[in-house]
């Protein structure tokens, strides 16, 4: 049996992976798939790939593009979710902020530097016409840390996936001032180069399996109830999310990578432009 170490956020997007593992789909091909939940998100997964703690990560497109631009020996092996991610813009329930415009020059909570929550704060600020060079950040590690930071005033707002945070909005812990969709396909599958050099055959099997699961995922009977029960969400919210979400079974395009790179360059989040093909495998 060959082993592969997978990592991803503990969110509803990744249920196809858990179903494949639990149903023995990888074992049937002689693969032991070890999954690690990473509530800290993209920044932490980039570190895990760089340090060899993870072989393959299901990760935000803009985050891994930034990390590869900075020298992380990783390649994108496939697009995973082709639809945008809907980022909710949240403040504490008791905060004085009422409109998005109130957040100009306010400190944003982020899971960690290089995370999607940080990169989206830059993109949102740009869309609002704010000075992105003056943005301030408070590192909170995960969603629980964000609740604490917003409740205690250590940060003013926090950007995180709309449906993951909706229970906190429903409970009156957060208020959502608006949403900001990622302007490109939101999740990709990325692998460290050492793994690609040594275990390319395993990767092909892994992609075959997950692509079969994602292609059929929306047609699974009662998948809305399964997702709602597993992730503590309302069935109506899951149905809305399913209506907006599209999984992919192909490689992300060079044109999309170029758009992401140019956006990061414009915001001065990366300092050099490498050819778009260098991000992709093969």
Q: Can you summarize this structure?
A:
The chain is of the alpha/beta class. It is built from 11 helices and 10 strands.
Helix content: 25-40%
The strands making up the biggest β-sheet line up spatially as 2-1-3-10-4
**Total strand count, please?**
10
Structural class: alpha/beta
Mean pLDDT: 97
Any guess at the CATH architecture of the largest domain? Answer: 3-Layer(aba) Sandwich
CATH structural class of the largest domain: Alpha Beta
CATH topology of the largest domain: D-Maltodextrin-Binding Protein, domain 2
Which term fits the overall shape? globular
Looking at this structure, what is the CATH superfamily of the largest domain?
A: Periplasmic binding protein-like II
How many separate helices? 11
Please outline the major beta sheet. Answer: 5 strands, mixed
* Spatial separation of the terminal alpha carbons: 25 Å
How much of the polypeptide forms β-strand, as a percent range? 15-25%
Q: How many structural domains are formed by the residues?
A: 2
Runs in which pLDDT lies below 50 for 5 or more consecutive residues are none
Q: What is the string of helix and strand elements?
A: EHEHEHEEEHEHEHEEHHHHH
Can you give a write-up of this model?
Helix 1 (about 15-20) packs across helix 8 (about 200-215), helix 3 crosses helix 11 and helix 9 (about 225-230) crosses helix 10. Helices cover about 40% and strands about 20% of the residues. The mean pLDDT is about 95. It folds into two domains: about 1-85 and about 185-280, D-Maltodextrin-Binding Protein, domain 2 (3-Layer(aba) Sandwich), CATH 3.40.190.10; about 85-180, Periplasmic binding protein-like II (D-Maltodextrin-Binding Protein, domain 2, 3-Layer(aba) Sandwich), CATH 3.40.190.10. It is built from eleven helices and ten strands. It is an alpha/beta fold and about 280 residues long. The chain has a five-stranded mixed beta sheet with strand order 2-1-3-10-4, with helices on both faces. The protein has a five-stranded mixed beta sheet with strand order 7-6-8-5-9. Strand 1, helix 1 and strand 2 form a beta-alpha-beta unit.
């Amino acid at each position: 049996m060959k082993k592969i170490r997978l990592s991803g956020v503990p969110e509803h997007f990744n249920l196809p992976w858990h179903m494949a593992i639990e149903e023995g789909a990888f074992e049937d091909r002689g693969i032991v798939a070890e999954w690690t939940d990473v509530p800290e998100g993209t920044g932490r997964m980039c570190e895990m790939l760089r340090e060899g703690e993870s072989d393959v990560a299901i990760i935000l497109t803009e985050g891994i593009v930034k990390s590869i631009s900075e020298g992380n020996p990783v390649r994108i092996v496939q697009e995973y979710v082709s639809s945008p991610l809907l980022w909710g813009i949240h403040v504490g329930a008791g905060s004085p902020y009422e409109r998005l415009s109130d957040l100009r020059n306010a400190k944003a909570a982020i899971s960690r530097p290089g995370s999607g929550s940080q990169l989206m704060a830059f993109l949102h600020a740009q869309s609002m016409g704010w000075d992105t060079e003056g943005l301030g950040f408070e590192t909170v590690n995960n969603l629980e840390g964000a609740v604490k930071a917003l409740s205690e005033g250590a940060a003013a707002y926090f950007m995180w996936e709309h449906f993951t945070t909706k229970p906190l909005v429903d409970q009156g812990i957060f208020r959502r001032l608006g949403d900001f969709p990622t302007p490109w396909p939101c999740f990709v599958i990325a692998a460290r180069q050492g793994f690609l050099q040594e275990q390319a055959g395993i990767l092909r099997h892994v992609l075959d399996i997950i692509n079969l699961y994602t292609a059929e995922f929306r047609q699974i009977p009662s998948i809305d109830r399964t997702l709602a029960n597993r992730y503590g969400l309302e069935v109506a919210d899951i149905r809305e999310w399913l209506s907006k979400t599209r999984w992919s079974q192909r490689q992300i395009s060079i044109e999309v990578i170029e758009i992401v790179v140019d956006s990061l360059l414009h915001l001065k989040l990366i300092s050099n432009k490498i050819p778009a093909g260098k991000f992709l495998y093969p």
